[in-house]
Design brief:
Helix content: 10-25%
Radius of gyration: 24 Å
Number of domains: 2
CATH class of the largest domain: Mainly Beta
Largest sheet: 7 strands, mixed
Order of helices and strands: HHEEEEEEEEEEEEHHEEEEEEEEEEEH
Number of strands: 23
Strand content: 35-45%
């Protein structure tokens, strides 16, 4: 788009916003960069009406949103789907996480979903059938799912996760809040027409996120990859230390001491949760055991063994990591023997 055309669009956008937007529309924002658990969209004010035009892409993608609410505050959570010609109605689902959320029936969450620190969750009821609706301001048709008014149980931060249960790809508009106030993203408005074209497998819809083939395979669940990382910041990430204890009979006890971490053997292969999971034990880089607790017994070590190490993994087998480095610890066999 040349500079003059872009400037004209932004001017037109400003005029429309000034005269029509406050009365009948939401503030628009677009998913230019893929929304993830590590980089969710932070809703500026949950009482103001925002429409987030997003993409469930590639297959298996989950988008995350965060909002702050006061105890007792009613927050509109709504989902609309663009009525793209010759396309069936796209039907993603949503869950909300936070303190005091009334779980009711356990939500059906995908294994790859990264739960926030407060894991209590409920599925957001969207109804059984979307309603066909014409939006006069944008002059477009939508499929609207039922509005849901979430009553915040506490003054806290809440997370909404959005995904498709059958791993289909598609476009959506996530709407939060009711009070209509002037604003929005001019860049989003200028690319509005792109939102009305179907997503194509293998064609990246994100302006600011480059998707590799490897990332697309992991999102779709076609890989069980122990090289996948669960990135956390250093302040909240798990820690691990390892002690190798030689015994009189030639065997060894191994003690795995962790911080910010809980062993959860009952949740293996389930959705990853920060600070929960299991450990892998390695001898000279070769995995020899999966650990579900602090202590482990090794009957023997290979005669030429040099090092024993351990790495912490989430329930879905992704390694906890800080700045790309897995959370792990290692001890020299020779040092352990010398100190015995």
């Amino acid at each position: 788009m040349n500079h003059r055309k872009r400037l004209s669009i932004i001017c037109l956008y400003s005029l429309l916003m000034a005269f029509a937007w406050p009365a009948r529309a939401h503030q628009p924002f677009c998913e230019f960069a893929d929304l993830t658990a590590a980089a969710p969209w932070q809703v500026p004010n949950a009482s103001i009406s925002y429409a987030y035009f997003g993409n469930v892409f590639p297959a298996g993608d989950i988008d995350y949103f965060r909002f702050d609410a006061e105890a007792g505050q009613q927050v509109l959570l709504s989902l609309s789907i663009p009525a793209i010609p010759d396309m069936e109605v796209f039907a993603p689902v949503m869950a909300v996480f936070g303190p005091g959320v009334d779980v009711g029936e356990p939500p059906q969450l995908p294994m790859r979903l990264v739960k926030p620190a407060e894991p209590a969750a409920m599925m957001i009821p969207l109804g059984n059938e979307a309603a066909y609706w014409y939006e006069p301001f944008g002059r477009r048709y939508f499929w609207n799912w039922d509005n849901y008014f979430f009553k915040s149980p506490a003054t806290a931060t809440y997370t909404v996760a959005l995904w498709h249960p059958a791993n289909e790809i598609g476009r959506y508009s996530f709407v939060i809040g009711q009070r209509e106030v002037f604003g929005g993203d001019a860049d989003c408005f200028s690319t509005y027409d792109e939102y009305w074209t179907p997503l194509e497998p293998g064609v990246n819809p994100y302006r600011d996120t480059a998707l590799t083939d490897d990332m697309m395979m992991r999102m779709s669940g076609t890989m069980h990859d122990h090289n996948a990382l669960f990135e956390m910041d250093s302040a909240s990430a798990p820690t691990v230390d390892l002690t190798l204890i030689p015994l009189m009979d030639g065997s060894y006890n191994i003690q795995v001491m962790t911080g910010n971490f809980t062993f959860t053997p009952a949740l293996v292969d389930q959705a990853p949760v920060a600070g929960e999971g299991h450990a892998h034990l390695y001898i000279d880089g070769v995995k020899v055991a999966r650990l579900y607790g602090e202590w482990h017994h090794l009957p023997s070590l290979p005669e030429a063994a040099e090092a024993v190490s351990v790495t912490l993994y989430a329930n879905d087998h992704s390694a906890f990591a800080v700045d790309g480095s897995p959370v792990s610890a290692s001890v020299s066999v020779a040092d352990a023997l010398a100190s015995a």
